[in-house]
Design goal:
Elements (H helix, E strand, L loop, with lengths): L2 E8 L5 H16 L4 E7 L7 H4 L5 H8 L3 E4 L14 H8 L4 E7 L12 E7 L9 E5 L2 E4 L5 H17 L3 E6 L7 H13 L6 E6 H10 L6 E4 L1 H14 L7 E5 L4 E5 L16 H13 L3 H17 L13 H14 L2
Parallel strand pairs: 1-2, 1-3, 3-12, 5-10, 8-9, 8-10
Antiparallel strand pairs: 4-5, 4-11, 6-7, 11-12
Helix pairs in contact: 1-9, 1-10, 1-11, 5-6, 7-8, 9-10, 10-11
The structure holds nicotinamide-adenine-dinucleotide (NAD).
Length: about 350
């Protein structure tokens, strides 16, 4: 019997609509090679909604998300003024308790990286920390942001990261700043150490965040799973993406116990809007992660193989990879390759 997956598609702002459309084309190509259907439901979300709806995440969109199995989300522009709506990604992560932000980074064929054999995943706590959104200006020129860390949230993301490490090379490095943030990162460290006892087959190491930024450049190939808190994970995953070649290749998944949202690591890159110039692979690989999450392993693997083969051939290269191919040319090459795979 044909399996049907209901997917919410939020195309986003800036380059979001371009890269999301291409990822959807690749999903459609993958669908033709396997016995499943995608019921794609488009809704509005993002900066462009604020003028019309007074919010970047209209109620109608939230109610659709609740009726779907997963969400494919394009990047969105986040307003920065105090009091403006908080980021859509942050809202959805909190609404659906998507506590693990999973960001794989590895070397791709024909893509210049700092080292040849990088294959790591950043797992970032996704619901609290400095993203709690609790900030005050207590007097003019004096601000406070609350870094909320709970043992419960640390335990559940640690559990996810250890399970992931078990399926990979069985090494987990947890990143913190416990020498300075003794209480909040103390809670994080204790939760990770407690979880580690349940996974004796996973080698565990800890490292301060400042040292982690250096080691990501010096010996990125030494890392397998990097587990950390929200803001540190955001910074480290952008760094890891660049170390492996380009932010345009970095995919991301936001995983909870009953829902998943999939989006590229990069933002809406407004200056490239409509230029057909950016790399769609980050969003295509996010769609790949979504199919994997939905249990469509074979179709997911085909997308990954197609991306690798197109990059290996080296004929199609977007500007970030040193070439002059367009976003659509890259997307078409990958979609055609998916269709041609046995
Ligand atoms: P950005 O990731 O949008 O862009 C930074 C630079 O990275 C770009 O100038 C470009 O050189 C490169 N880049 C990004 N995507 C690329 C791609 N697909 N191919 C090739 N190169 C690419 O970061 P920013 O400029 O700091 O943020 C722009 C907006 O996006 C902001 O409003 C920010 O808040 C938002 N943002 C949203 C998300 C999200 O929706 N999850 C994530 C990050 C940033």
């Amino acid at each position: 019997m044909t399996r049907i997956h209901k997917i919410a598609v939020l195309t986003g702002d800036g380059i979001g609509p371009e890269v999301t459309e291409i990822a959807v084309n690749v999903l459609e190509a993958a669908k033709h090679t396997s016995d499943f259907e995608l019921d794609l439901q488009y809704r509005e979300a993002g900066y462009h909604c604020i003028a019309e709806y007074g919010t970047n995440l209209p109620e109608d969109t939230v109610s659709l998300l609740k009726r779907t199995d997963a969400c494919l989300k394009g990047p969105m522009t986040t307003p920065e003024e105090p009091g403006a709506p908080v980021s859509v990604a942050v809202k959805i992560r909190k609404l659906f308790n998507l506590y693990a932000n999973v960001r794989p980074c590895r070397t791709f064929p024909n893509v210049e990286a700092l080292k040849p054999n990088i294959d790591l995943v950043v797992v970032r706590e996704n619901t609290e920390g400095l993203y709690s959104g609790v900030e005050y200006e207590v007097s003019p020129g004096v601000g406070i942001a609350l870094r909320i860390i709970t043992k419960a949230a640390c335990l559940r993301v640690a559990e996810y990261a250890f399970k992931l490490a078990q399926r990979r090379r069985k090494n987990l490095t947890y990143v913190h700043k416990g020498n300075i943030l003794r209480i909040t990162d103390g809670i994080f460290k204790d939760a990770v150490s407690e979880t580690a006892l349940k996974y004796p087959d996973v080698g565990t190491a800890e490292i301060h965040v400042d040292a982690a930024t250096m080691h990501l450049i010096k010996k990125p190939e030494s890392f397998d799973v990097l587990l950390t808190t929200n803001l540190f994970g955001d910074v480290l995953s952008d760094e890891a993406a660049q170390v492996t070649g380009s932010l345009g290749l970095a995919a991301g998944a936001n995983i909870g116990d009953s829902y998943g949202m999939f989006e590229p690591v990069h933002g809406s890159a407004p200056k490239y809007t409509g230029l057909n110039r950016v790399n769609p692979i980050a969003t295509i690989m996010s769609a790949h992660m979504m199919l994997d999450y939905l249990g469509e392993k074979e179709a997911a693997a085909k997308i990954e193989t197609a991306v690798m083969e197109v990059l290996k051939e080296g004929k199609i290269r977007t500007a970030d990879l040193g070439g002059s191919s367009t976003t659509r040319e890259m997307g078409t090459a990958i979609a055609e390759r998916v269709k041609s795979l046995p």
